[in-house]
Amino acid sequence: MAAGSMKDIKLRIKSVQSTMQITKAMELVASSKMRRAKQRMENSRPYFTALHQTLTDIAASNRDFSSPYMKQREVKNTCYVVIAGDRGLAGGYNSNVFKMVQAHTEGKNYCVLPVGKKALELYQHKGVSVISTAFGEAADISVSDCFEMARILSEQYLAGTFDEIYVVYTNFVSMLSQNAAVLKLLPFAARDELGRDAVAPSNHSLILYEPDSETVFNQIIPEYLSGIIYGALCESVASELAARRTAMDSATKNATQMIDNLNLYYNRARQAAITQEISEIVAGAEQ
């Protein structure tokens, strides 16, 4: 019986060691990819920051604006661009995004533009209206794909398919901290970094727009949407890799601890088997 127990423990140790090798490899892969993703994220931030500042300056210096992208209207339907991952094994990365969407859509009529396999699978399973299934692979999304998403969103927004647009993504704070966030895209509001109404720049009278500021503003909006979506995607990819690295590191540590405990049980079982054999030999010799 002890021999059978020892064999089971050895098989269990071997199984856990194989799992630990996989988690360690996944941790190293995530760490390697994350450095590139973090660099891409940092490089993308100035782009849509400049776009947002330009739009804010135009809107703040032209109070008589009648752009359809700024007009507040009755909200009958809302569109959410939901950025999730293609795979699991990343801790609470995907579930945190979906919980944020669920809380934000409470009592609303809404549709989604899913980015990533997990988002596409979830909302197709729930029967939520999906604008497009063309962006189901988050890892393969490029800048041109973001422009295509922005084109679809701006056209359907102008057509009245929905009255608001939000993007739900994961904000990369640090290697150990990633927070799900919701950002309103349209209708555009001229706000500064603190959320206050923007003030026209002091040199706004020196800025001339051809043919006029409203046309320039309407032409920049799709660029702005694509920039924000691309930036959110970069943040989400970096966050997913950081979450996966943390999860795999934790799994590797748990596997190491489990192996140590199994080795302890194995040594105890082996010691018990040796003691039993010695006892049997001594008892046989006394007879």
The biggest sheet, with number of strands, parallel, antiparallel or mixed sense and barrel status, is: 4 strands, mixed
Helix content: 55-70%
Whole-number mean pLDDT:
83
Structural class of the helices, strands and pairings?
alpha/beta
Give the spatial strand order of the biggest sheet: 2-1-3-4
Shape: elongated
Number of helices: 5
Q: Round the Cα radius of gyration to an integer and report it.
A: 28 Å
Order of helices and strands: HEHEHHEEH
Number of strands: 4
Walk me through what this model shows.
The chain is α/β, with parallel strands linked by helices and 287 residues long. The chain contains five helices and four strands. It has a four-stranded mixed sheet with strand order 2-1-3-4, sandwiched between helices. β1, α2 and β2 form a beta-alpha-beta unit. α1 runs antiparallel to α5 (213-286) and α4 packs across α5.
Describe this protein with a few key phrases.
about 290 residues; 5 helices; 4 strands; about 10% strand
Short description, anyone?
The chain has 287 residues and is α/β, with parallel strands linked by helices.
Helices, strands, pairings?
Blueprint: H1 2-61, E1 78-83, H2 93-104, E2 110-115, H3 117-126, H4 143-158, E3 164-174, E4 177-186, H5 213-286
Helix pairs in contact: 1-5, 4-5
